[in-house]
Every structure is written in C-alpha cells, then in structure tokens.
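To illustrate the input format used throughout this study, we show a single complete record. The first block contains the structure-token representation of the backbone; no residue identities are included at this stage. The design step must infer an amino acid for every position from geometry alone.
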C-alpha cells in the first residue's frame, strides 16, 4: 500500500486505503476501551491549527494524539497574530519552525490544507476546509455505519440537509461510494449542488420517499455561515419539510440508524426525540472519531 504522506480528502482514496484505515481504527479500540495509552507517537508533537471553531474535531485529535503517546500544540486564530495580518502560509511556516512533526488544519478556505501540504515538510491532515472536505468525519461516519450495520457494501445512505455547502456531505459521498454504498441526497433545491449526478448520487427534494429504503439517514446542519444570503425561507420552514421528525423516522426500517456530525440544531435538522432516540448513533460517532483519528495520525506519521 502506498504510504499516505498527508491526509487531505477522501476523493481519490482507494478502497484498500480506506479499509486499512478503518481496520487500524478497529485495532485501536481495546486501547481506548481499556483506557490505555500507546507510545507510537512518543516524542512527537502534533499542532492543531484551527482557524474555525470546533468542539468535536479538535478535542478528538487531541485525545487521539495523547492515546498514541504524542503531545499537542493548540493554535486558535483568535488571539493569534492572524489579527495583525499574518497569512496562513506564514503562520504555518512559523509554526513549522517550532519543529512539530505534523499539522492538523481547519480553515474556511477550500484547498488550504493542500496548499500547506505543498509548502511544508511535515504531514498535513485536513480537519475541514470550507465546503470542500472533512475526511476524518467521513471516516468516522463510515466506521460507525460498519460498526452498527456490519458492513457498508450495499447499504443505502440518505444524506439530508445543506448538501451544497457541506464538506461532510462531499467527503462522505466519495468515501461511502468507494466502500460500496449507494447514496441519495435530499434537501431544498437551493441547498443541493447544481448537478448531484456528477457526484454519483441520486437526489430528491422530499425525504418521505427515501426513508423506507434507507439503512442510514445522515442529517446535516444548515451552514448559515457559508451562505451569502439565506437560501431557505426560514429554519422553521426547513424543519417542517426536511426535518427528521419522529413521524418521519417511523417510516424508516426497524434497524436503520440516524447520524449527525454535530453540532445539532435540535428542532431544525431533527427532533430531540430522534436525536436522543434508539436509532441515533450520534454520540457513538464522537467516540469513534478518536479511533479513526488515531489511525490517520499513526498512518501519516509512520
Ligand atoms: N463534526 C464536526 O466537525 O464538529 P466540530 O465543528 O465541533 O469539530
């Protein structure tokens, strides 16, 4: 298998590479369950370079680094010299001069992790770039689907919400299709990409017809921060037509599961009864995030 020097996206990731990462994540499970730490990253420093807010991803990379025996340096744009006009590349080059061993980056601009990967001498991991990719989120989603349903091949995944502005949707579409799932996207016409079929997915503007055939329903947040102007009449209107209510969830197969990458807007993307109900694997996704990020860090640092 070709070594992964960086981890920038799921587009172009082969099935063999993706399955190897999922299997490595599974192999790390006993370490976490038994509350142990390894020494794979002993003496290594991982920089979390976050230009956008994060709860799950940043903390999960921190926990993953510690589980592997490494240490973290955390950068937050607020309070940094970015406010004095320092560019992304200058910031990253100065941080590289502190001699860390890997940079995990989240940035509002699509493509910024690739630019850093070309500019730096150390591995770069994409923790979310604009509306482009969020590859470790897709890996943890795939890992969770495999954990709960036994396999991904042949499963039907419905992604509902703001597909057009979602890096989570893009990374999941690439990865889940590579792993043999069929994917449908659903949402208001203004929040679907112009030609969804180019991505190899089906699309629908109403959720109800898709629910009985779904093995997985992944609800996404409306990304108001990435919209130039409000592209739906109101959040209440969105919730009424596309929200996963208890009534709509009842149309799903008995064993079908519900995912959400977080943060959830309760009562918008899904009802609280669904978010906290028996189909929901949302907190398992967060737990699994540590395992897949351990696998990614171990891989790029190997
Ligand atoms: N899912 C996700 O990326 O969450 P955070 O923004 O909290 O990292």
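Output of the design step:
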């Amino acid at each position: 298998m070709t070594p992964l020097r960086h981890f920038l996206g799921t587009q172009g990731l082969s099935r063999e590479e993706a399955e190897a990462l999922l299997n490595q994540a599974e192999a790390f499970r006993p370490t976490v369950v038994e509350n142990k730490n390894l020494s794979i990253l002993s003496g290594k420093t991982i920089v979390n370079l976050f230009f956008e807010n994060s709860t799950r991803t940043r903390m999960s990379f921190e926990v993953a680094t510690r589980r592997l025996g490494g240490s973290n340096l955390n950068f937050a744009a607020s309070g940094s010299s970015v406010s004095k006009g320092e560019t992304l590349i200058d910031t990253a080059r100065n941080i590289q001069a502190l001699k860390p061993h890997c940079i995990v980056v989240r940035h509002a601009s699509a493509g910024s992790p690739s630019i850093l990967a070309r500019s730096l001498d150390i591995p770069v991991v994409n923790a979310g770039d604009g509306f482009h990719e969020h590859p470790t989120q897709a890996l943890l989603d795939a890992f969770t689907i495999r954990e709960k349903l036994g396999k991904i091949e042949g499963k039907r995944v419905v992604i509902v919400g703001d597909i057009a502005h979602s890096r989570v949707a893009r990374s999941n579409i690439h990865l889940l299709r590579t792993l043999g799932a069929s994917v449908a996207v659903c949402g208001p016409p203004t929040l679907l990409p112009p030609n969804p079929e180019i991505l190899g997915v089906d699309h629908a503007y109403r959720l109800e017809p898709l629910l009985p055939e779904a093995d997985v329903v992944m609800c996404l947040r409306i990304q108001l921060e990435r919209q130039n102007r409000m592209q739906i009449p109101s959040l209440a209107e969105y919730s009424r037509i596309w929200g996963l209510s208890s009534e709509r969830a009842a149309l799903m197969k008995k064993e079908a599961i519900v995912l959400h990458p977080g943060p959830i807007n309760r009562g918008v993307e899904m009802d609280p009864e669904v978010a906290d109900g028996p189909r929901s694997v949302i907190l398992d996704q967060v737990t699994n995030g540590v395992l897949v990020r351990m696998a990614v860090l171990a891989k790029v640092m190997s």
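Structural context for interpreting the output: Residues 54-57, 128, 137, 261-263 surround phosphoric acid mono(formamide)ester (CB under 6 Å). Residues 15-33 form the longest helix (19 residues).
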